[in-house]
Amino acid sequence: MLYAILCYHDEDTVGSWTKEQDAAVMKKLAVVQDKLTKQGRLGPVARLLPTTAATTLRKDDPPLVLDGPFAETKEQLLGFYLVDCKNLDEALDVARDLGAANPGGAYEIRPVGQFVPGSVQP
Length: 122
What we know:
Dimeric_a/b-barrel, four-stranded antiparallel β-sheet, YCII, YCII-related domain-containing protein, alpha+beta, 3 helices, 32% helix, Alpha-Beta Plaits, two-stranded antiparallel sheet, 122 residues
């Protein structure tokens, strides 16, 4: 089963890291990613740009396009992993490994229902 592991963190904190601090975190995360890749379990991974670059579509009548999200939260969605896991316990183990590599924040683990296959046929 595919699980989305959604990465939340305080955007201001992450944005204040020096290039060296950010690179050190990314290097630690790469160890976890490489392990999952070698096991054939890692799907797409994305690091989202800051919420200041976001656009929101409100489903009003008519729809309204706004700059940025307007959720009052202390942590923002900063990225995600798609990982093939046997069950929730295995997905939690992956999230724990990611958490050990990345200080602070939180991970939301959510099963993914595939409606359209994600592979491209040559």
